[in-house]
Amino acid sequence: MGAVTYPDLFVATLLNEYFVPVQINIEKARELILRYRPIWTPNLNVLDEEGAMVFHLEGWLPPSEYSAMLFLSRGHYFIRKKHYPEATPNFQEILQKYPTSSFAPEAFYYLGVSKYMTAHKVEELIETWKKLQVSYPYSSWAIRAGII
Amino acid sequence: MEKLESRVKWEESFEKGQERSRKEGKPILLDFFKDG
Lengths: 148, 36
Hints:
The structure holds 2 protein chains of 2 kinds. By secondary structure, chain A is mainly α.
């Protein structure tokens, strides 16, 4: 991650602007290891102010995927805080800028959730999830949206 | 060749990161890494 992804200007801008980035050597942080139990690196964790996990991912990501992951995890952060209108633009950003990202189907799913939790219009949820099923029919998120 | 360096402004410690997170209302991105 340090050789390719973190030197990327856009990734760094997103991290510096919208997150508090902390990097910890897995061999030198016993308390945090006991708390978050990482077993593999790279190991990324997005936490709320109290340290509760809102998103977790293991493995390397190139800059474009890392950027999409940041928007997705930021959306999850606002959903957990029940700030639904603030979550929505993060999911939309992924679909507009990174439609081929591996995170796009999940973004579609939670776009439906955040819209529904904002306005409580079930037709909006159904419309969004139907678009998810058409756009990413083989993703697990399309299956999960199959309840509609 | 230009050396590639992180442009990310990493916090000095988890505790300082959490303090800033509370103050600024931003999520923490905690990256566990291993040397080598």
